[in-house]
Design brief:
The structure holds two protein chains of two kinds. Chain A is 82% helix and 0% strand. Chain A has helices spanning 2-8, 12-37, 42-65, 73-94, 102-120, 126-133, 141-160, 162-170, 172-177, 182-204, 209-223, 227-252, 256-288. Chain A is globular. The relative contact order of chain A is 0.16. In chain B, the strands form two sheets. In chain B, strands 6-7-8-3-9-10 form a six-stranded mixed sheet, sandwiched between helices. The longest helix of chain B has 18 residues, at 174-191. Classes of the chains: A mainly alpha, B alpha/beta. Chain A binds chain B through residues 37, 39, 160-161, 163-164, 166-167, 169-171, 173-181, 220-221, 224-230, and chain B through 52, 54, 75-76, 78, 80, 82, 85, 88-89, 91-95, 97-99, 102-103, 105-108, 110-111, 113-114, 136-138, 154, 158. The structure holds adenosine-5'-triphosphate and magnesium ion. Magnesium ion (MG) is lined by residues 44-45, 83, 166 of chain B.
Chain lengths: 289, 259
């Protein structure tokens, strides 16, 4: 086992893949927790579909008109994701009491544009599959640099704005009242969400990205008492999923994105079951007393 | 220094077409304890939100501590416990301590972290409302009354000079309610805190407030409780409609307390 891992890490592309995976496993739950507690986790899903339309646009422009040839379609996806996130924030303000209303529109719109442009650009091939399901081993050095930069930016943002993000998530009205600069923080936050999603896409793919953002948080909410714990547990679970999923994918020759998400689901199942069993035992003890 | 805590001058407000508040003028002195009563939908919460600048009046002026509310820089002089405070998500992963600390975040600003003395303030506020033993408990695992007290602690932690509570006793049992009024009276006397309390609970507040405001779109009565007690039947029937039997009964109990 250890030898296998050592052998695998001799390859440079594997090292890159692992680093990208660890970074993404850190920032996804870090941003995800705020989305989940604000009941906006569907944003991740919607923005990933918007990214799909961006990636498809990139592919299409390259194929048809030879535009953007030097530019990786992932960056077009990133651009779309950020623009999409600004749209979400605008809509969130517009429909104050139905904040999630913008999301189905974005989700289906993004999917529609994506599918149309992909078929126009030559249909579904291995490349496209890579974007949909993630191809962590295809991460180039330049992309890794981008992922790392986004990782640093997002971590810094959450670190510096932790107080503001907590207040806005727990009680937006009270946060505004106490003078928290809510417009700026909300805007920067949503742009960060867009960036996280477009970088996570390279690891787990468009279809699975929202699960890496929400699943570890779902597990951590089962057991966390405080907000601090919730963040730490979510990151730990995400990293476990990334590492196990990554090595499993390599040694069993599976798709890495799928493996990572499957491990997350398994962790979730285990924690839920553990909680139930503990509850049953506690109650038994209670009866005996 | 003798500026009043709150001054409203001819304030009118409408959410849509219909006016919800009309020509409200009132002055609350520093250190005063004001009770606001009125039937459902009479505009009590709206009035509070106007004072907090969560809503902007179409007409009239609102001043807090002598400054027009739009330009009030230090927001932490006002503490607020909303009517909806305990409708927060039960599953939210936060302890009492974390929630109370968030009352300081606006005052701390962007680049300052919680220091030791800030956490001491948090623990003091928690102690004031009697939740010390539950400080590290998850908010969702508290009872309704305990949650309400946690929100009061969050409002108190930034050392406000004015505390506004919108129906804090809804869903709170009689004993906790009594404790709450004791706490408010204590804060009022010890810290010279100006208090504004919205409630349906006319009977219990008569013994704690200094003045009373009766609201139903317009300000029907505004004065000391002695004045209120003189004209109570008139005011209440005007406020709640003629022949409101139950209310006159509760009020006569209140009067007994007053004498
Ligand atoms: N967001 C809103 N949009 C439109 N109308 C509103 C809104 N909030 C309140 N209203 C209306 O304004 C009026 C006053 O409401 P308000 O919440 O101030 O009443 P209240 O005195 O606090 O009532 P309660 O005792 O039930 O809390 C009501 O007629 C209500 O229908
Ligand atoms: Mg109200």
């Amino acid at each position: 086992m250890l030898r296998e891992i050592a052998e695998m890490l001799q390859f440079e592309f594997m090292q890159r893949a692992l680093i990208a995976g660890v970074i993404v496993g850190f920032i996804c739950p870090l941003i995800g927790i705020f989305l989940v507690v604000r009941r906006l986790s569907l944003i991740a899903e919607a923005l990933s579909h918007v990214s799909l339309s961006g990636v498809a646009t990139g592919l299409f422009l390259q194929k048809e008109w030879g535009w953007l040839v030097g530019i990786h379609p992932v960056y077009v996806g990133m651009l779309f994701s950020v623009i999409g996130s600004l749209f979400v924030e605008k809509m969130r303000k517009l429909y104050h009491s139905y904040q999630e209303l913008a999301l189905p529109i974005l989700l289906s719109g993004g999917m529609g544009i994506g599918v149309v442009l992909i078929s126009a650009a030559g249909g579904f091939n291995a490349d496209v599959a890579g974007y949909l399901f993630g191809s962590i081993v295809a991460v180039k050095e330049e992309q890794l640099t981008t992922v790392a930069m986004i990782g640093i930016m997002v971590s810094l943002f959450v670190f510096v704005f932790y107080k503001q993000l907590f207040s806005l998530s727990f009680d937006e009205e009270n946060a505004i009242l106490t003078g928290i600069p809510h417009r700026v923080v909300n805007l920067v936050f949503i742009v960060m969400v867009g960036l996280v999603i477009s970088s996570a896409i390279q690891v787990v793919g468009i279809l699975l990205v929202s699960s890496l953002i929400t699943l570890p948080v779902a597990v951590s909410l089962q057991i966390a008492n405080s907000f601090r714990q919730a963040i730490i547990y979510a990151i730990i679970f995400a990293e476990i999923a990334v590492l196990i999923g990554f090595f499993a994918a390599y040694s069993l020759n599976l798709a890495s994105g799928g493996a990572i998400v499957l491990v997350s689901v398994l962790i979730w199942l285990m924690v839920v079951m553990f909680k139930r069993i503990r509850l049953i035992f506690n109650r038994k003890g209670f009866r005996r007393e | 220094m003798s500026q009043p805590a709150i001054r409203l001058e001819d304030v009118s407000f409408a959410y849509e077409k219909e006016k919800v508040l009309e020509d409200i003028s009132l002055t609350v002195d520093r250190g005063e304890f004001l009770g606001i009563i009125g039937p459902n939908g009479s505009g009590k919460s709206t009035l509070v939100k106007l004072i907090l600048h969560l809503l902007k009046p179409q007409k009239g002026k609102i001043e807090v501590f002598g400054e027009s509310i739009e330009f009030l820089k230090d927001r932490s002089v006002i503490g607020y416990v909303s009517q909806k405070a305990n409708t927060f998500q039960r599953g939210f992963p936060a302890t009492v301590r974390e929630v109370v600390a968030s009352g300081l975040y606006g005052k701390l600003g962007l680049f300052r972290w919680m220091r030791k003395q800030d956490w001491e303030k948090v623990d003091q506020a928690i102690e004031q409302v009697g939740l010390t033993s539950l400080a590290h408990r998850n908010m969702g695992k508290l009872s309704g009354g305990q949650q309400q007290r946690a929100f009061i602690a969050r409002a108190l932690v930034s050392d406000p000079q004015l505390l506004i509570l919108d129906e804090p006793t809804v869903g709170v049992d009689a004993k906790s309610q009594e404790q709450l009024y004791e706490l408010l009276t204590h804060l009022h006397q010890q810290k010279q805190l100006t208090l504004l309390l919205v409630t349906h609970d006319i009977y219990s507040i008569l013994s704690v407030v200094d003045r009373m405001a009766c609201l139903n779109k317009r300000l029907l009565f505004y004065g000391t409780i002695d004045e209120f007690a003189k004209h109570d039947q008139e005011i209440l029937s005007q406020l709640f409609g003629e022949g409101h039997g139950t209310l006159s009964i509760t009020l006569s109990k209140g009067q007994k307390q007053l004498v």
